[in-house]
């Protein structure tokens, strides 16, 4: 049974508020970095999704991005024109295409990641390394625990969560 004391509720509410604020700032910062790299924020998200999956169909990317396939299709066309992704016929279904990152696409993601990393380093420049490491660990734990908690709300079991050894 979970502890729902007022102090836990207050602290949890503060975490929720700070995560919401961080999410808003992150989206804004992501848009600024994308623009500095000559892209739109959604295009950068699509490139990162492709980087994680290597090669896939537009429909699969749309599912992953939680958008209609027509939205991804337009982004794919624009990114293909920029030379950041490549398209080839799916050998298992000649009507479908597989898309993947090009070398230029990987280079663009390296540039985007470098800019984000510089900002993160700068924002924590006065923090000791131990505090930064603890934050990374805490965020990883929160990510795992929240995936499980939200999965319970929907009745699903998250694929990327496993019980951690507490001993």
From TrEMBL:
BP GO terms, sorted: response to stress
Sequence ranges assigned to domain HTH marR-type in this UniProt record: 12-141
Record has Transcription regulation as a keyword: yes
Key words of the record: DNA-binding, Transcription, Transcription regulation
SMART domains referenced in this protein's UniProt entry, alphabetically: HTH_MARR
Pfam family name, one: MarR
Any one GO molecular-function label of the UniProt entry: DNA binding
Cross-referenced Gene3D superfamilies: Winged helix-like DNA-binding domain superfamily/Winged helix DNA-binding domain (1.10.10.10)
Stated name of the protein: MarR family transcriptional regulator
């Amino acid at each position: 049974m979970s502890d729902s004391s007022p102090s836990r509720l207050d602290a949890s509410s503060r975490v929720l508020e700070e995560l919401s604020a961080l999410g808003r700032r992150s989206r804004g910062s992501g848009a600024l970095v994308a623009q500095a790299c000559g892209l739109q924020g959604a295009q950068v998200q699509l490139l990162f999704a492709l980087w994680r999956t290597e090669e896939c169909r537009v429909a699969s990317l749309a599912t992953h991005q939680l958008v209609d396939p027509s939205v991804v299709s337009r982004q794919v066309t624009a990114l293909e024109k920029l030379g950041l992704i490549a398209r080839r016929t799916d050998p298992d279904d000649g009507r479908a295409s597989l898309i993947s990152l090009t070398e230029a696409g990987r280079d663009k993601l390296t540039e985007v990641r470098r800019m984000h990393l510089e900002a993160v380093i700068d924002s924590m420049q006065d923090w000791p390394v131990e505090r930064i490491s603890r934050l990374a660990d805490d965020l990883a734990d929160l990510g795992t625990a929240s995936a499980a908690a939200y999965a319970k709300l929907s009745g699903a079991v998250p694929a990327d969560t496993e019980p951690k050894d507490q001993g």
